[in-house]
Task: structure prediction
Amino acid sequence: MVRSGSARVAVGPTLAVVAREAGVSVPTASKVVNGREDVAPETRRRVTEALDRLGYVRRPRFDVAKVPGLVDLVVHSLDTSWSGAVLHGVEAAAHDAGLEVVVSAGVDRARGGRPERSWLDKLIARGSSGVLFDLAELTSAQYAWLEQHRIPFVLIDPVREPPPGVVSVGAANWRGGVTATEHLLGLGHERVAVVAGHQHTVCSSARVAGYRSALASAGLRHRPEYVRHAGFDESVAHRRTLELLDLPQPPTAVFVCSDRMALGVYEALSERGLRVPDDISVVGFGDLPESGWLSPALTTVRQPLSEMAATALRLLVRMMDGDRPESTRTELSTRLVRRSSTAPVGGRPARDAEGRTRGRETGGRARGRETWGRARERA
Result:
């Protein structure tokens, strides 16, 4: 067993177990692990699959002196405004700390956002002093790998609840869910639905819990049919919104757990000839640039991504210096950003953050997928 903070994480199997699983000799399995070229492609494939399936943890082949001024940032992808906000926060904090940052999309989307095995090996070769993981889902073997190599790391907005002792930074998702729902309730909406992300992720579960808490505080019963999970996918959010509209009592307001999914919600409402906010109010979550590209502009809960990333970098620096944070979980506050997508039941749209009432398009639709795509590329 390997200790990670106050948690104990199981180390993976031996190389002999991997060799037996793949049907090869131990020397052949060792060649694959060490990157030797004199192995047949089919044999390499079988051994690699066995390594992944069994969670084998590579041992260091040599001691590498860590580079004091170098840290790694591993993001889920490099082509989103989310990643841009995270990178901005990390770069600013790293500059203040006199550090250099290596940025990579070191996760395998086909494996649920888990860091790729080859990237972990390269980390040792680079000699980085610490790692920030953004939206990554690490396995027990990967936690053990980082501990074995004594590499400090911090998770930014982890997908799953990390093991005890693992340091992470996130937003006050529960409070954000409460804030979004209370805003809609304060406008007189009682039939409030929620289009959530993945059912078992940390952030989505907390936002839905906040939504339910706000309903309970207002004396309104929870309607299970008003909770729809869309996995943070705009096309799925589109389908879930149509399902809500087909209910005998459709909602008059929707809390969408990400600004990106709000695009799908807007398009579904437009297909049914409904206007935002005249016929139905919508609140998002994130306050990414996407929220201002919709028409009418989206009222949303601001998630301080750049601040979260900068906080994570500062915590990592402390850990690199041998200082352990008093608390393993840091949450930054959220706040409501009022724009034009919400209004009282049967009323006119609320004013935005600048005090202006923005124009509306029939159907409350987005400004077209092509415009959305061009704007997203600029973010």
